[in-house]
Prior knowledge:
Chains A, B: It comes from Salvia divinorum (Maria pastora). Chain A has 654 residues and is mainly alpha-helical.
Amino acid sequence: MEGRSEEWFETKEMDIRSMPSSRHASLPYRVGVPPKQNFWTEFSSTVKETFFSDDPLHSFKDQSRSRKFVLGVQAVFPILEWGKRYNLTKFKGDLIAGLTIASLCIPQDIGYSKLANLSPQYGLYSSFVPPLVYALMGSSRDIAIGPVAVVSLLLGTLLQNEIDPIKHPFEYRRLAFTATFFAGITQATLGILRLGFLIDFLSHAAVVGFMGGAAITIALQQLKGFLGIKNFTKKTDIISVMQSIFSSASHGWNWPTIVIAAAFLVFLLVAKYIGKKKKKLFWVPAIAPLVSVVLSTYFVYITHAEKKGVQIVKHIEKGINPPSVSEIYFTGDYLLKGVKIGLVAGIIALTEAVAIGRTFAGMKDYQIDGNKEMVALGAMNIAGSMTSCYVATGSFSRSAVNYMAGCQTAISNIVMSVVVFLTLQFFTPLFEYTPNAILSSIIISAVIGLIDYDAAVLIWKIDKFDFIACMGAFFGVVFASVEIGLLIAVSISFAKLLLQVTRPRTAILGKIPRTNVYRNIQQYPEASKVPGVVIVRVDSAIYFSNSNYIKERILRWLTAEEEQLTAAGLPKIQFLIIEMSPVTDIDTSGIHAVEELLRSLQKRDVELVLANPGPVVMDKVHASNLASLIGEEKIFLTVADAIQTCSPKFAEVV
Amino acid sequence: MEGRSEEWFETKEMDIRSMPSSRHASLPYRVGVPPKQNFWTEFSSTVKETFFSDDPLHSFKDQSRSRKFVLGVQAVFPILEWGKRYNLTKFKGDLIAGLTIASLCIPQDIGYSKLANLSPQYGLYSSFVPPLVYALMGSSRDIAIGPVAVVSLLLGTLLQNEIDPIKHPFEYRRLAFTATFFAGITQATLGILRLGFLIDFLSHAAVVGFMGGAAITIALQQLKGFLGIKNFTKKTDIISVMQSIFSSASHGWNWPTIVIAAAFLVFLLVAKYIGKKKKKLFWVPAIAPLVSVVLSTYFVYITHAEKKGVQIVKHIEKGINPPSVSEIYFTGDYLLKGVKIGLVAGIIALTEAVAIGRTFAGMKDYQIDGNKEMVALGAMNIAGSMTSCYVATGSFSRSAVNYMAGCQTAISNIVMSVVVFLTLQFFTPLFEYTPNAILSSIIISAVIGLIDYDAAVLIWKIDKFDFIACMGAFFGVVFASVEIGLLIAVSISFAKLLLQVTRPRTAILGKIPRTNVYRNIQQYPEASKVPGVVIVRVDSAIYFSNSNYIKERILRWLTAEEEQLTAAGLPKIQFLIIEMSPVTDIDTSGIHAVEELLRSLQKRDVELVLANPGPVVMDKVHASNLASLIGEEKIFLTVADAIQTCSPKFAEVV
C-alpha cells in the first residue's frame, strides 16, 4: 500500500509539472467566502449558542398552545412528567434507598450543623424541607439533598468573620438565613438567566484540590470533639489548629472521649472498607454511623461518662422547622454581607450539586438540564431560608449510597424527608446523651472520601498546569482558609484560560513522506521542510491579547530558519505560509498584526501566503481589505495547494 | 486539471476497494506520539514562551564575560549603543524636530496641567526631566515624551475624588507626586517582571473607544475656558457639563473670551487642515499653537482685555523643577490611594507610549522591546515624581510631528527638554497675559485628533463584538467617567476572550468535490456529507470551561443529523469523526468529557473516531488511557484517512 501511494503522488506531481505556467488561473479549489451575514443573525446566533446551547425549547417546537402550557408546567415540575409512570417496583427501590440515606443523614446533619456554628436541629431542618422541594422541581434521580460538610464549613467560616456565633447567636442565625436566601436567589438567577455555564469556570482540578483541602480542614476541626478539647482556635488553617491541639495536650485532652471516639472511628472505617470491598454490602457503611450513635449514646447513658468530661449533645429542639421569613435581613448592613456570603456559598453548593447530577446522569444515561437544575436548587434554598434551614445541596457520599441502594427517582428524597420529620417530631430527646466525639468520628470518616488521591495523580499525569491549580487550591485551604483556597483556585483557572489566548502555540510544519499532508515537525520528526518556504501553523484565534505575540513569534520562526539556512549556505526563504486551520477567529487587532507582518515580510522580500482560513476569518479578511493587500491568489485551500504554487519543484524532490 | 484529479482519486479509491479487509494493519500513516517531555523542560519552555517570547538574551549568547557586561549596560542605556554612531547629519534632523515639538509642547503643557488640576509650571516641569531620562534609557527613536491630555484628565479625575484641589492644593500635589511615583514603579515592575504582555489585554478597539470618549470629555471640559465660565461642574460626564454650560448661558458666558477663543480655534483648525493636505507643511500646525499664544498674549496685553473678564494665566513659577522626594506619601492613608491611582494612570500611560513606540518602529522598521521600554518609562516617571513632575508618557500628536519633522534619535527629546528648561528659567513671565481661552482652543484642536472615526468604522466592519467594546468604552467615558469607561472596556475585552474559550465554534465537515479535503459545509456549500458518518470539527482547545459544552454540542450535531436521516428514511449514523486539528490542548476536564462522549456514543451504537490530534493532545490521550478506550486504530492522521476506513464505499459515489 505504501509503495502504491508513492506511485500515485508521483503521477500527480508529474501532472503538475506538465501543466502550463499560469497555474493561478487553474487553482485546484478556491477558498470559500461565506455569504455576508446580517448583524442581527450573527448576534442572535451567538446569543443562542452562549445561553441556549442545549436548545431547551426543542420539545416545544410545533406543539399546540395547550400542549405548550402543559410542557411548560412539566418543565418547572418534572415530577408531573415522571410521576405518571411511577409504580410500585420503583417505590420499592426508592423506599430502601430513602431509609438508607436517612439513617446516614441524621448523624451527619447533627455534626455538619456544628461546622456551620448552628444548633444541631438546623441540620435536621435542612434535611426536611429542601429535599421535598427538590423532589418536585429537580431532574436528577440519584442526588441526595441536605447539608454537606464543605458548604457547612464555608458558611460557618464566612459567617463568623462577620458575627460571633457564641456572643450573638440570634444575629448569627439571622445572617445564616439571609445568606441561605441569597444563595438560593443566586442559584435560581443563574439558572433563569441561563448563566449556568459560569460554574464551569471552576475547573475540575480546582474542585478536586479545594475539596481535598476542605476535607483536611474539616477533619482537623473535628479534633476538637475527638480529643475533647474545650478551648479551640477559631481559625481553620492547619498551623493554628495544630498549635491549639498541642498547647492543650498536657491538660486539655479528655481521655475517655478519645477512647470512645477512636473506637468508633475504627468501627466506621472498617465498615467503610467492607462497603468498598463488597459492593453488595454498601449498606454496612451506610448504617454504621447510626449504629455508632445508638451504641455510644447507650454507653454514655449507662456509664454517665458525661460526668468524666465526655461532652454530649445535651439538647436538640423538638418539632419541625419554625418559620424564619421574618428573620432574614432585607435591610441594613447585614443585607449586603448576607448577599456576599450567599453568593459564594450558593456557587460552591451549585458546583457540588451539578457535578453529582452530571455524574449519576451519565452513569444511568439520562439528560440533565444544568440551568433547570439550578432553578430547582435555588427554589429549594429560598424555601429553606424561610423555614429555618441553611444552605443545602447534593451530598457526594449520600448520593452514592442512594444510587447503590437502588433509588429510582427523587421519591427517595421524600422518604428520607419523612424519616427526618419523624425524628424531629419524636426522637430528638434520644440524642441527649450522644457524645460529640461520635459526631466527630462520623464526620472524619465521611470527609475522608472527599480526598480524591487518584484524581490528583491523574491530573498530574495529564496536565501539569491543572495540577498547579489543584495544589494551589488544596494548600490554600489547608494553610490559609477556605476563601483563600477558593480564590487561588479561581485565579489559577482563569490565568490558564488567559494564557491560552495570550501565548498560543505555533508550530513549523513539514511534509509527511509519501503523502500530501503537512504536519508539525515536532510531532512527526520524519516530516521534511520545503526548501525556500517556512510553513507556520498558528494554534489559536488571533485576538488583541495575542496578536502582537503571534506576529513576533512568526517573525522569530522566520529569523531562526534564515539563520540556519545562511549557516548552511542554502538559498533564502521566499515564502511564508501560515496554516490558518486552527485560527477560528480574528479581530481588528489581529487584522492589524497580519498587516504589519505583511509589511515586515515585504521588507525582507518574503511573500506571505495563507492556507485554509475559516469562514469567519475569510469574512473579516475581505471586510478589512486585507485580502487585496495579500492578494486573493495567495490564499489557498490547503498547505499542499500553496506548496504546489510556491515550490512546484519540491514535488520532484520527494 | 480538474478532470485529471478526478481520475487520480478514482484510481486511489479502486486501490482501496481492492485491498484486503484488514485495512487497520496497513494504515496510510500513524499519528505521531511526541516523545514524553520532562516536567521541567515543559514548564521552563512555557515560562520562556510566556515571559521571554522575544528572546531578549539572544545577543548575549556565546559572548565573553566582559562583552556581556557591556551589552548589559547598553541594554539598560541604549544611548551608549546608538550614541557611538551619532553624527552631525542626524543631529540636524533632531534639532529641527526638537525645536518643533518644543514649540508645540509648551502651550499644551500649560493647558494639560489644568486638566490635572495642577498649576501651569508642573506641566512644563514634566516636559523637562522625563524626556532627559527617556533619552538615556528608551529605545524608541520617534516618541515625544511629556504630559498628555488623556493621562492628565485621568489623573485629575482620580485625584480629585480623594482630595479637593482648591481647598487642599498642597495635599493634592503631594498625592499627585505619590501617584506619579507609583505609576513609575508599576511601569518599571511590569517591565522587569516581563509582564508587559498584560497591557495587550486592553484591546485596540477598547483603546479607540476610550481615547475617543476621553477626547470628547476633554473638549467639553475646555468649554469652561472657551466660554469664560467661572462656576463649572467638577463632574466630567456630558450631561453634567451641558447642564453647567446652559445654566450659565444667560449670565456666565464672557463674550470677549468667546471671540478670542473662537477666532484662534478657527486659525488652529485651518493650520491643522493645511498640515493634513500638504505633508511638507507639517510645521504649520506644529507652530500654530505657539503663534496663537504669542499673538493672543500680545493682544490681551495691549487691549487689557483681562479687565473685561477675559481670564489670563497670571503667574507661572519661574525656575526649574524643585525637588519633591519629601512630598511623596510613603506612609498613611494616602499611600494606598496613591498606589491605586498610580497603578491605573501608569497602565494607561504605558498603553499609549507602547502603542506609539510600536507604530513608529513599524514605520521605520526597527525593533522595540516592550518590556525594556516599560522599564525606561517607569524610571522616567520615578525620576519625575522626585522632581515635581506628574505622569508623563508618549504623546500621539507630538510624536507624529517629531516623526514628520525628521527626528533621527531620542536626541530630539533632549533638544525639546533644553528649550523647556530655557523657558522655565527665562520666559515664564511672558505668559502672564496669555488668555486661558487660547489654551482651551489649543487643547480642543489637539484632542480632536484622538477621535479616530475611521478606526471605529473599520472595527464595525471587521468585528461586531469589538465594536461593542469600543462603543462601551466611548459611552462609558462620555456619559459616566473615565474610570467607568475604562472598566467597561476592560470587562468587555475579557468577556470576549472568555466567551471564546467557553463557547468555541464547532462545524460539520463535508468532502469537497474532486479532492480529498474535508471542510466546513457552511463555508463550502458544495461539500458533500459522507453517508453514515458525521464529521465534526472542534475549533478550540478543550478545557474545563468548555468541555461540557463541546460534549453536548457534538451530541446535538449527532442528534440533528440522525433526525434528518430518520425523516428521510436513510440508514443511521455509524461513525462520529472529530477533526482535532484546531484542538491544541486538552485538560483533565476535557479528557473526562471525551470519555463521557465515548460512553454516550457507545450506547447509541456510534463509533468515535479522532482525526489529527496534535502533539499535546496525543500526549495526554495516552497519559490518561483514553487512547486505549477509543482504540489506537481509530485515531487517524487526516479525516480522509478516517473516511477510507469508516466508509470505503463513499469513494465510489464521488
